[in-house]
Each structure stands twice: as structure tokens, then as C-alpha cells.
Amino acid sequence: MSRIIYFDDLTVGQRFVSEPEVVTEESIIRFARDADPQYFHIDPFTATESVFGGLIASGWQTAAATVRHLLERCGVIFAGGVVGVDATVSWKRPVRPGDRLHVEGEITSLRLSASRPERGFATFDSKTLDGAGRVVQTLQATMMINRDSSRRESPPAG
Amino acid sequence: MSRIIYFDDLTVGQRFVSEPEVVTEESIIRFARDADPQYFHIDPFTATESVFGGLIASGWQTAAATVRHLLERCGVIFAGGVVGVDATVSWKRPVRPGDRLHVEGEITSLRLSASRPERGFATFDSKTLDGAGRVVQTLQATMMINRDSSRRESPPAG
């Protein structure tokens, strides 16, 4: 069951673990055709000649999927959506068709917005793991999230 | 005219400036539908109710476009493609339909791979600017790039 999360509901140390999702060849090619059309992301045949020996997902696909996992596959809905402020991403292993990925993350910092009292900033540290438990990516992202107007007078949790 | 670039051709301080590209509503929605399906990236009507007052591009679209600009819109071809190792991105302003973006970047660091003598690591510091010259994103990425086998005995440029 999903529940709506406001900035006020977040606490430092709070963990999110997503349901796994299988990466398909079709989704790799569809993402990369426009966004990152290098041959080892879009052509399964010539990709065999690459350093990877086959098709791999664009790193940007795995990065974007991190926040999507948080939003869609952790049973939570963030009020007003999630707006990225900055991110640091490290790609550890190639992601291939058939890989079953999930995201494990934790809120590591919370602060109110000085200019926008209706929003706050949350920093989320995550690992994306494959079906064998190997880390394929680490990502730290700072995101802007709505506060609950009914609780705005009280200090935020965390 | 395009020219093939090997790791050996890169020098610290080398600059790349891309031809501008106009971001369309259609490209914003197409990218976000799968990769980052938040309402302010995929629905021009409900997006008017968001903090942005209208449709904006996913930050991951602008991030991915940085490397694509480098590869497709600077008149260079990187031998063997470009493989992302890590990246730090900061989103400064929303990107809206009709924005005309270009990328200005510089090689800030070069080092050989210890484990793969046929490749090297290049760090690329970039700004993405809109038609009014405002910075919409900064991105620093470290990428793995092929060396030229015929020059492998000599030290790399830079």
C-alpha cells in the first residue's frame, strides 16, 4: 500500500528498499536511442565487439532509475514530486539485459529551504544491486521535497 | 568535419563547445515517460500546477545530453566510444520546451588506466547554457577512452 510522504515525514537514517526490476534489452535500446546513442547501448550485434562484449545499459538509465525506484517501487509517494538539486553517481559494473536490479537507500541529511519555507532538501545515499547482490552503481542525490502545510509551524522530523 | 579522438589526443585544458540544440516538448515527454515519469516532466496540463508552472525536462535528460553533445555536436568522434566511470551533476535552472542549449567543457585531468593499458581516464568539466547564456547545469564526468594502439609505447599527451 502506498503512502504519501512529506519532507516532514523523513528522518535521517530512514531506509528505502525497492522491489527488483528486470532490465530488458528493449528498455536499454529505447532509453539510449535518443539519450545516449553509443553503439554498445543500441546495437546488440556491434556491441559484441565493444570492451563489454555485448549490449549494456547507459549509465544515465541506471541513474535515472534510482529515483524512479524510490518513487514507484518502495510503496511511497512524495508529495508534489521530487526535484533533483544535485547528484554524484559512480558506475561500478555494466548493467546487461536480464539483470534484476533493486535499490537500497537511506536519508543521510535533511534541511529546510531558506528561500522556500514550503519545501525542504533531503539527501539520499543509495546503492543499486543486481540479483547476485553486487553493487552496480552508487548514487547520492539531494532532492527538494514539499513540506506538509498543516505541519509547517513545527520543526521538521529528523 | 569530424575527427577521431583517442585518449592520446587529449590534453588538459582542451576545450569543447557544442552546437546548440533546441529542447522540444516532445523530447522531454519521450525521455521522461519511461525514465522519470513525474507529472511535471510528462503532462503539460497538470505541470502548470507544479512549483515550475509548466513542463520541465528531467534533470537526467540534461545530464545524459551533456555527453551526447560532446560526442555528436562538437565535431569529434571518440575511438571506441565513451564509458562513464563517475559523474557529479548540479541542476541550476529548470529546462523548458524551446530552450536552446549548448555545452561548454574542458578536459581537467588525464590518467592512464593501471589495469587496462589500452584505455585511459579523462575528466571533463562542463557547463550547459541556455540561449540567454544562463548556466542550467554543471557536470563533471570521468570517462574511459581508448588509446591509439600505434602510439601506446609513447606517453600520452597532457
UniProtKB/TrEMBL annotation, chains A, B:
Segments forming domain MaoC-like: 13-109
Domain of life: Bacteria
Entries under SUPFAM superfamilies matching the protein: Thioesterase/thiol ester dehydrase-isomerase
Pfam families: MaoC_dehydratas
Database matches in InterPro entries: HotDog_dom_sf, MaoC-like_dom, MCH/BMMD
Protein name: MaoC-like domain-containing protein
Species of origin: Methylocystis echinoides
